[in-house]
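Replying to the earlier thread about multi-chain prediction with a worked example.

Input:
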Amino acid sequence: MQGVAPGGIDCDLHPALPGTAALMPYLDPYWREQITVRGIDGLDLASFPPKIPANGRADWRPQHGKPGADFERLRHDALDGFGLRAAICNPLYGVQAVYNRHFATALATAMNDWMVAEWLDRDPRLRASVVIAPQDPAAAAAEIERRAADPRFVQVLLLAMGEAPLGRQEYWPIYAAATRHRMPIGVHAGSTARHATTGNGWPSYYLEDYVAHAQAFQAQLLNLIHEGVFAKFPDLRVVLIESGFTWVPNFMWRANKTWRGVRAEVPWVDRPPADLIREHVRFTLQPADAPPDPADLARAIDQIGSDDVLLFSTDYPHWQFDGTDAYPAGFPAALRQRVAVDNPLATYPRLRETLA
Amino acid sequence: MSRHIVAAVGEIPPGGRKLVTLNGRDIGVFNLGGEFFALLNRCPHQGGALCRGSLTGLVTSTTPGEFTWSRAGEMLKCPWHGWEYDVRTGQSWCDPEDTKVRLYPVTIEPGERLAKGPYVAETFTVSVEQAYIVVEV
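Result:
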């Protein structure tokens, strides 16, 4: 199989929830009644309109329904198609954007039950991120505790743009629970639309939303570092998913430079931010914002200063590349094994233990 | 190497400093509670006049939200980019191994001895009753 090192692990796969109705078997009677009476459906995030081309590669898009909603297709196209040893499912639905925290919490639990019954139980290669509703951090921590008994849940899923910056102390119960169960925090692209999607206010066009995601990821990294999340939780790992990674070097340089001048403001940040990023933060491969000249890609990776930080991902069924070579042109051959196998196993201890 | 008389001891009070030029080098002489230190007036980062920066303390922390303030007046912040240097060692706080400012030996000598030389003291009339700050450059 071209493109994936033997035994490759896909760190970002997207089974799609067809709609709220698919969660009905996993919700209690009160919420079933509410969903029915209020006609609740279509909670997809505006960040991922189901019908845009980027959301489903043409040869992966089914005739009917959402890309990624069909298990047999996912097994054929992704698990078998890429020859994967394992894959981590990150289901995207608007749970994190629901204003009613109790409903959001119920939906998160239902999403995880749905994930177990309709995906994880059907193929031993599948793993998943725990969906939580950060609107209610205590309930989110309880959901992590509940899922910890199932080793197939290997990570906790959050979005790049939520209600408050992710480093804030109100979210620390989530990090305490995740650390306790050795789950990294996966921060996936996507906005809950609580705030404008850029620091300058609302943009007019989807493409602005899409490109501006790098700003959101940078802001989250800055906040996680400087609020002291990594000082408080030294074992915590954060995986930025669909963030791109070629922006990381200049971000590191600027963060380091500024820290040297004003670090007295945040004395718990006792080493350069770039060192904390290399130690605690990982980035998935796709989408890779690769330079026009493939020869420049290796240089960008080299400037990050660590071979440990990239994790192989296909982003199936999203359309980031054609064919079966998920690596962008110019990706160093010597790093493929590292990115596809070694780094995922090092990042996800629960995955490592269940593959042994 | 030559030894230079830069000031009478009483001229630089605790917390004070004096900027001098010795053998063509700009140097700041600092009094930290009665101990004297001489640093090259050039930040190793980008060449800012470090010795014109503000003296501050050292803040450290073992956990977010906790601030431990110590060594008041012993850290020197470059006026250009705020990098902090330990006046006692010349080491930068953020990169102590690789980024440090040159430190010159300082001694306190009685005027009685200085009057005999061989010291460079062109701007001083040395009195045998006083003690002087001597910097070796």
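DSSP finds 13 helices and eight strands in chain A.

Feel free to reuse this layout for your own posts.
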